C-alpha cells in the first residue's frame, strides 16, 4: 500500500470520531457537572457490563487471529483488564470506582442495574468479535483512538464537579490515558497491514461505525433509564 492510500484509509477511520460517544448528551451532561449521584451510579454500574466483557471480546479476536505476532501483543489487553493476580487490573479498578460512587461490589457484579439496551449493545460487540473476520474486530476497537481526550476531560470534570467521589476511584481513567494510545496505535498498524483491498477497507470503516453505534446505544439506554 502506498502512503497516500494508507493516509486516505486512516483519514476515513479517524473521521468516525464524529460519531463517537463523547458527543452523546449523557456524556456532555456528565462533563458539565450536571449529573446527580443516582445517574452517575447508573452509568458506573452499566459500564461495568462493558468492562467485564472487553477481555472476552479480546479473547475472541485472538481465537480468530492466525498470526502469532498479532496475538503476542493483543494478549496484553486481556491482562490489562483482568490483571496478573487478584486485586489488579482494570476490572478491579472499575469496581473501586463503583465503591467510590457509593455502590457495593456485589450489586455491580450481580448486574442488577444493567438495562436491556446496554446488555444488547455489549453482547452485540462480543458477538461481532466472535463471528466477523478478526481484522474487522480489530478495526472496531479503534474507537480508542478517540478515547484519550474524553478520558482527560472526564478526569477534570470528576475532580471539579463531583468532589464527593474519592480521587482514588478515578485510577481506572488515569491508566487508560496511557493504555488507550498504545492499544489504538497497535490496532491501527494491524488494520493498515491486513486491510489491503478496497472491500477490506470499507469493511474496516463499517466495523468502526458499528462500534460507535454500540457505545452510543449504551448511553441511550443509560440516559433513558436514569432520566431526571
Ligand atoms: O470510557 C470510555 O469512554 C471508553 C471508551 C472506549 C472505547 O472508545 O471503545 C473504551 C474504554 N472506555 C475502555 O475503558 C476500554 O477498556 C476499552 C476497550 C475498548 C475496545 O474496544 O477494545 N474500548 C474501550
Automatic annotation (TrEMBL):
Coiled-coil ranges per the record? none
Record keywords: Oxidoreductase included? yes
Q: Which GO terms describe its biological process?
A: pyrroloquinoline quinone biosynthetic process
Question: By its UniProt entry, which SUPFAM superfamilies does this protein fall under?
Answer: Heme oxygenase-like
Q: Which controlled-vocabulary keywords does the entry list?
A: Oxidoreductase, PQQ biosynthesis
**Enzyme Commission number(s) of this protein:** 1.3.3.11
Q: What class of enzyme is it?
A: oxidoreductase
Checking Gene3D superfamilies in the record gives: Heme oxygenase-like
Entry GO MF terms: pyrroloquinoline-quinone synthase activity
- The record places domain Thiaminase-2/PQQC at 12-220
* PANTHER family xrefs: 4-AMINOBENZOATE SYNTHASE, PQQC-LIKE PROTEIN
What does this protein do, in the record's words? Ring cyclization and eight-electron oxidation of 3a-(2-amino-2-carboxyethyl)-4,5-dioxo-4,5,6,7,8,9-hexahydroquinoline-7,9-dicarboxylic-acid to PQQ.
Q: What is this protein called?
A: Pyrroloquinoline-quinone synthase
Which species is listed as the source? Spelaeicoccus albus
